[in-house]
User: Fold this.
Amino acid sequence: MRNKLVVVTGGAGFIGSHIAWELVKDNDIVVIDNLQTGKEENVPAGVKLVKADIRDYGAIVDLVMQADYVFHEAAQVSVVESIKDPLLTEDVNVVGTLNILKALLEGHGKLVFASSAAIYGDNSHLPLVETEKPRPLSPYGVTKATAEEYLRVFHELYGLPVVALRYFNVFGPRQSANQYAGVISIFINRALKNEPLIIFGDGRQTRDFIYVKDVVKANILVAESRRANGRVFNVATGKQTSILELAQKVVEITGANSPITFDKPRPGDIKHSLADIREIRKLGFEPEWSLEDGLKKTVEWYAVKREG
Ligand SMILES: NC(=O)c1ccc[n+]([C@@H]2O[C@H](COP(=O)([O-])OP(=O)(O)OC[C@H]3O[C@@H](n4cnc5c(N)ncnc54)[C@H](O)[C@@H]3O)[C@@H](O)[C@H]2O)c1
Assistant:
């Protein structure tokens, strides 16, 4: 991608900022972010940060209209928060996405939307294929499934070029380590303080972890592929890792003295998650980062940040 005008919503957050960093060398980037969880320091130099809310159509329409590509990462991302406040989550994740779709109708750009494996819920047909019926377990998952449907409808009604990417468990530098964040950032941050790594349940539950740089690659690949238009793809590695294995790897890589402890399983946690990635592979996608290499990079980043 070169010499394009690219809008990244949520570009001050974890995944959005990695997209901005990757594309800033060769393109004009505008980040739209209300800094709800994102941070100004995540936005690379040379990128224009517009502090606006995607729920405010008037504030975003002109920017989105001009874009060649919109990578839509902004969302109310917390599952727990979505259970507490489903209306707010609906507003940000569904109305916000509709605002972007509407604004794109006024322009010429293509949309790549950050959906989620949460739409599958606790489905035991592993590995999960994109054609499985969505059955989310949280309002967050419902909003992602709904937004995907709006994308499909705008594609069918207006021919709008859109792609939805169902991210599985993404990890890497700049991921927030608060209590609702991904397990990897929580484990690494605790290990760096030699605090216990707490596993909820027996640790045999599994996830499909993907390093953020591979997620960025998937975004750019589908953005540039006309064959991807109107479609939905899993973004994952197709590899299963248990939480116990993960905790052991984090202890090994950090050299921490952290004990691994077990607590009651959390209600609503799913047992296994694993993606079938044959569809995105057909477009030429291949994850490049092993879990170990991704963990090493992430540990390095958090370690430097703690010192700095
Ligand atoms: N991290 C994962 O493992 C994962 C997995 C599946 C899907 N996703 C999806 O990927 C996207 C990016 O997630 P992330 O992990 O980088 O989260 P993040 O919280 O780091 O990024 C979200 C960004 O959106 C911004 N934002 C929130 N509400 C906004 C609003 N109303 N208007 C404008 N900006 C707003 C936040 O300030 C933040 O910068 C989200 O859509 C999320 O649902 C993430």
